[in-house]
Amino acid sequence: MFEPPSSDATDVPAALAAAVDALGEALSDPASIDRLPERELVDLITACEQAKCRLEAAQATAAVALDTATRTRHREQGVPARRIGEGVAAQIGLARRVSPHKAARLLGLATILTREMPATLALMRAGRLTEWRATILARETACLDLEHRRRVDLELAGTGRAAELGDRELEATAKKLAYTLDAHAVVARAARAETERTVTIRPAPDLMTYVTALLPMKQGVAVYAALKTAADTAPATGDERSRGQIMADTLVERVTGRPAGAPARIDLRLVMTDRALLAPDSPGSDTPALVPGYGPVPAEWARTAVTRALTDTLTEAQVFLKRLFTHPTSGQLVAMDSRARTAPAGLAEFITLRDTGFCRNPNCGAPIRHLDHIQRHADGGPTTAANLQGLCERCNQAKEAPGWQARPGPDGSITITTPTGHTYRSGPPDPWPTTRPLVNLALAHDYALTA
Questions:
Q1: Phi, psi of 304 (to 5 degrees)
Q2: Are 117 and 138 in contact (CB under 8 A)?
Q3: Residue 171: per-residue pLDDT
Q4: H helix runs in 28-163, sequence order
Q5: Among candidates 367, 336, 337, 335, which has minimal Cα distance to 354?
Q6: What is the pLDDT of residues 262-295, one digit of tens each?
Q7: The pTM is what?
Q8: Which of 250, 253, 325, 443 could join 230 in a cystine, given CB atoms 3.0 to 4.6 angstroms apart?
């Protein structure tokens, strides 16, 4: 179906780009695939999977080469030792369209594969092992010294077994081999892992959230067993809730010390149009509201939250309103200026609201931790809403590495230039579909906001 074009062997990126373009052209017409017989359809799926594995191996090799070249350049430029290599993960993230956090993990994996697990990398280059399964092998051998890690590498990847086992089988086999080779290292790793216990939260669809607890195995099993016991006994009392609902409600009750749905202290910010808040029957009143750091929520849900906060006679609610205004044509939020080096509190709050609580760098999505200038203050960049952006800690540190530049666009976009000369565009925040004033409500009250 596809013949890769001939090219000078020294021009690998151009040859690869031409090959990918040719392949994409060959596969761009779904009708040509639909006409294939079943056997050839399976062959095509297999070939694509093999190509993905090989390309992931090439990405790993290129990532390590980029890291090495960047570190060499930083040393030659006299960059402080603690900052050597800074920004490499961010460049990989932009190139692979993933967050810098994930890119850092991928770079770490690539380094391990290149320097410590050659058989695993070779299996990827042969098109037989995915990047995820290589991650499993690297993760389960992280506690071993180099000699033992390479023995696992040869045992599972060198023999091809890693390509034949399922994900769980591969994980279990790698764990068993690691424990056999160095039980003390595995136990020590488990002890260190307990220090990394934490609780995280992230948005879920339909106004829900995921609250995830990373716990030591015994504690995690005990927590789940307690919730399971509650779910097993509740139906005997006539409880009509589902098993999952009982477990979720029991978790809330035991963590907060209050029955599920009872009043609880909440600090919440809502950004919504004045019509959505005050005139629910008027045109445009269904414009979604925004919870910075979570995302859009239905206008009706936001009105209900505000109404309950104001009308609940059992609690003392505090609701603060601030006006925000949009540009009459672009729909972008507009705000104040300042001559100060540091954004004043009001402007900092506005930037966080405008950027919806998430890092502005493409594909990142981490919560905003820092507010910084797009064009550096040292280069004459003003402290204005147009020249400020919300960034996560990793992205803010990366942009300070040598060779990074950014400039704001008139439409609210940001153009990022990396040390290699590649440019990436961060589009402006989504405009509000209205030119009427917006209202920023800060709700601080003792009430459980439920839809």
A1: -60, -40
A2: yes
A3: 94
A4: 30-34, 38-76, 88-96, 100-115, 118-125, 131-140, 146-152
A5: 335
A6: 555 555 677 787 778 877 888 777 888 888 777 7
A7: 0.75
A8: 250
